[in-house]
Structures are given as C-alpha cells and as structure tokens.
Write the structure tokens for this entry.
Amino acid sequence: MSSAIAVGELLERAELEVTAVAGQTGFDRTVTVPRIQKPGLALTGWPEQLHSGRVLVLGGTEVDYLRDHEPARHLGLSTLLASDPACIVVCRGLSPPEALVKAAGACGVPVMVSTLATADFITAVTGWMSDRLAPTTDMHGVLMDVLGIGVLLLGKSGIGKSETALDLVVRGHRLVADDVIKIRRQGSHVVGRGAGIIGHHMEIRGLGIINVKDLFGISAVRDTKKIELVVELREWKEGEEYDRLGFDDRFDRILDVAVAVVQLPVRPGRNLATLIEVAARNQLLKIQGTHSARAFRDQLHRAMEAQSEASVDVPMDAVE
C-alpha cells in the first residue's frame, strides 16, 4: 500500500507538464493526501483553510495578487509557507513572482510551473494522486469478467481455479488475471488487475503456461475489472452443511470494502463453469434489486397464509 508520494514524482508525469523553478532540495518532501489546495484567503493572512503536506496550486488570480499587492505580499507568502505545503505549483505557464521563488527556496519548498490551465492541472493531478495513494493488496486466485460481473475465484492450490477459468473463457467470458491479482480500492469498490509480466497468462497443469490473449484473441481478455462477487471453491466434505436456500447473503471485506461471497463445493460431476455463470447472473439480478431466493420464500409464505385463511373460512355445515 502506497502511503506517500515524493514531490519529485510529479516531474516524471508527462501529463502534468510541470518543470521545477525553485526548491529542488525539497523533492523528497511527501504528499500523503490526494487532494490539492488553493490558497484563497490565506493570501491575506488567514491560515485556517490550509493543511500541511498537500500540493498548493496557484492560478492567474493568485499570481496577480502576489505581484500587485506589495504591502500584503510578505504576509501572504509567510502564511502560505507556514502551512508547510509539499510543493507549490503555478499553472497556465505563468512565471511565479520572484518573492515567492526566493521565500520557497529558503524553506526548501519546491516551486513548479505547469503549462496546463488550473482546472485541467487539478483534475489530472488529483486523479493520479488518488490512484497512486489508494490502498492496495495482492490475492492469489483468478479474476474473470462473467456477464459484466467481476468474479474473483479463490481456493487452495490444485482445486481447479485455472481450469474453471479456462472453461469460462471458452464459453466467451473474459480473463482479467490468473494467479496473482493486484487489487486496489477506488472509492466504494475494489478493482483487480494482473501482476506485471504475468499479464494474461495462465498455468494449466498438463499443458503448462498459455497466453489467453494469443490463443483466443483480444476479446477474451481485459486489463482491469471491478470485483463484485467472490466465488470460493472448496473441497466437498461428506457431512458438512452447505447453503441450499440462499436466503442470507454473505460478504467478505477486501480492503475494507464488502464484496458478496458464494461457496461452491467441488466434487466430480459438478460443472463449475455453469455454476459460476449462474452465480454471476444471480448477482446481476441482486444488483438490479431482484433476490430470487427471497422472492420465492415470500411467495411461499403468501401461499401458505392464503391456504390457512381458506381453511378457517370453511362453514361448519360444510364440514358436517
């Protein structure tokens, strides 16, 4: 999990179009929050809206203020730098005021210039920092796109995850990753992808390593997918109780995000690919507001209540 971004990394992002003009000694300063800040009233000496360790962005209005208000310039710069920003970025390719360059350089705070418009820079840097600082974890399994549902197959080694995934690919579904799944939290959901060079390769016992993209074409793979369902493959054990009704939904937490879980016992004769397809279809129905098992239960209860009321309403003379 990445917990900080070195300021120097901003220079490596071509899409940000930034160059350094001062404070190069502070490139090891870190950003820990994926939110930028604009100075606003802090230029007048009001400090409460600023937070330390963030990227401070100046646009045309702020640059003009610092240039044209010489009596207040010293107070404004002192307030900005007292908040201990990670760095200061001047947008629209504007030249930062000389007083800002000197003051920031003396404090070791990097000053950069971006040719992007202020709004465009804020959008680009916020998106990149949010992704860069998002919580991450690795899990061993197979991630598939089944009917638009991201299905994460889990189970102990040798239980048949890769073979089942290959069967799903043959049926027209898409592989995201096999073996090591890189998972990242994005807002209220988690997204998985493959691990580097492993890409869209799979290890099938008896066949070895295969490249799904080369074998089945580009339509058989995808790079990332939101994880919406976890399918646990478990060895069938005689005497163990398995869910046969499905009234109660189970969830596991991945990076503190609740993800629906189903357990499929594995034994000869069970068509796991078909069962996973049905599980994905059922999950899609639940997302759309239809819970088949509960709907059947409610229908059964209504039928039983109607039958009970009908028996109570039978006239006594009819019974005689």
Remarks:
- The longest strand covers residues 174-186.
- The chain has two domains: 5-133, 136-294.
